[in-house]
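User: quick one
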Amino acid sequence: MSARRKLVAGNWKMHGSHSANAELLAGITGARPFACDVAVCVPFPYLSETAVALAASDIRWGAQDCSAHDQGSYTGEVSVGMLAEFGCRYVIVGHSERRQYHQESDQLVADKARAALARGITPIVCVGETLAQREAGETDAVVKRQLSAVIHTLGHCAGEMVVAYEPVWAIGTGRTATPEQAQAVHALLRAQLQAATAHAAGMKILYGGSVKPDNAATLFAQPDIDGGLIGGASLKAADFVAICRAAA
Ligand code: PGA
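Assistant: Done. Structure below.
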């Protein structure tokens, strides 16, 4: 096991309502303390109420995307400056759903990560291959290419990001990467980080993709898996709390 403190971050995606959020956040805060860092990444309209609900706790909050621009005529976009005003600690960038449905390029993802860091918000940079890419033996090349764009754009700040390996074929499918499959990619990513920054050994690399209470502990026990980015199971307090407990 590594000395890195684990991080479990919920990715609510486009789910929630005032009442559901209140119940979920109460369930999470009521289960403290946790032996890992815990965060929730919520839809933009719910940042304000999330900040209020978590203010007196050590649970952190963040967003699921941001603009690469500071401000301007970008209808529908949200800047990292705005996220900072809501106390966001994290922002997910480059989630496969953004890459797939919004045609986000490796460079755009990298620019978003740079914008976040410039405002003191930690980007959780997602990388991961599709099933077709895995079956074609392209997994290593794909994740390396995705991470490489971010490393080059962040330069000496690269050590400040969090990386999340999320195989696209495991997201929301109930099909999890085996701990060995995940560890192999995490080790590859850490080696890539090691070549770029002196801080690689202390950086968090999260696994995401159908993490559940019953598979979290074995995934988190892998030497280069430093926690998880949790989608579906982050919407039920009992499941999310159980996953956080597995990251002791
Ligand atoms: P999942 O989603 O846990 O529902 O598979 C993970 C993610 O997309 O971040």
